[in-house]
Fold Alpha-amylase.
Amino acid sequence: MGNSTSVRIIFNKCSHLSFFFLSNFSLIFLFFQETDQPNQLTDLVINPSSNPTPGAVLRDGKEILFQAFNWESHKYNWWETLETKIADIAKAGITSAWLPPPTHSFAAEGYAPQDLYSLNSKYGSEHQLKALLHKMKQHKVRAMADIVINHRVGTTRGRGGIYNRFDGISLPWDERAVTSSTGGLGKQNSGAIFHGFPNIDHSQDFVRKDIIGWLQFLRHKVGFQDFRFDFAKGFSPKYVKEYIEGAKPVFSVGEYWDTCNYVGSSLDYNQDSHRQRIVNWIDGTGQLSTAFDFTTKGILQEAVKREYWRLCDAQGKPPGVIGWWPSRSATFIDNHDTGSTQAHWPFPSDHVMEGYAYILTHPGIPTIFYDHFYDWNHSVHEQIVKLIDARKRQGIHSRSPVRILEAKHNVYAAIIGEKLCMKIGDGSWSPSGKEWTLSTSGHNYAVWHK
């Protein structure tokens, strides 16, 4: 999209599609509902015992993601620690586990990458990583690599006395690989600047060739199957498209974290422009990648404060990216940045299970956070497992239709698909009709099935 005057409509076999044009000819998507049923999504039926192919899991729509670390995990011999939990993760029904950055980094957490081909990090050795990936493959849980390619820490000083050269390590780039916006000899950033580190100039042919080679190494030599693109707003999504086409991951998701719309200090009810920016990024990847639904997170964590009316947009649909493009929306409650010890934008702790009751019953691709699953208490773990089970038993997938029944200050209720009903909030509510049976419930939430 961008500034192009040509308009391309993503139809994707949707019904109830409406749109209108802005003055710059960009397109606002109002994807009210993707009505493909599982047997219509693709002619390829995924056998759980087989290896899924790139694109197939998006068409299937049955993914459940798991962020398998937090901000402090590097302190705890993480690859070996995580290996002991893979059987339990698989048993819960999780399909892909997002691991922290696997390569050598200037910072312990992994988000200041330096030597990309070195697999010895603060999370463990190369041998321990490969043992973990082998265990994941045995249990049919895909490994998602955290791809940090917006910036890179240099080894030697170059132009301007900045560490913008990468001598003595794999991919020994010089200043041409660094954007001029951050002290290099390359072009200006094609996205937002990540301050503090040299930002990579993805417009350089040699840079893209090297990155694709490294991604192929992770994919085919190391054993990762999925990719998560860190700080995706820092470089053009067209490069993400090229990297996905070059390395062919089974599944990809981007972190396009943009600020929500506020009126003073209060979250605005209308977040259409916020979710539009995420939709634009997804479209820029050629629809090959999903994106984390920061819009849904921002709205949901305000809604649970007795503002459940926020969960229904002006068209009567979910107000996040899941209301427009659910098959490309990865919903989540918290991650290592928003929660954990950083707590930059945390979900209210006493409402976390309401949050999971929402994302695990609704369309989109839900993501479970390690802290909630393992570090809180066994009750939270078991409640999440029961919600996953309800989702799977009733065939809820990323495109399942939503019919919102209530969205008031103290209660939200909806029917998802044809056989699952849920409510969150302290208001009294239950579905009418004797055909509904309680599946699971907890503090301020309940789920029923037919």
Observations:
- The chain has a mean pLDDT of 91.
